[in-house]
Amino acid sequence: MNPHGSLFVGKGKQTIFMLTRLRGEQIHHTISVSYITPTVFILRITRRELQFKPGQHLTLGIPGVGELREYSIYSPPHHDYLEVLVRLVETGRLTPKLAKLRPGDEVLVDGPNGFFTLTDEQILHPQLFIATGTGIAPFHCFAASHKNLDYTIVHGVAFHTEQHDPRHYKPGCYIPCFSRERNLPFAGRVTDWLRQNQVTPQTEVMVCGNSQMILDVWEMLLDQQHPMEKVRQEIYF
Question: What pTM was estimated for this model as a whole?
Answer without folding.
Answer: 0.87
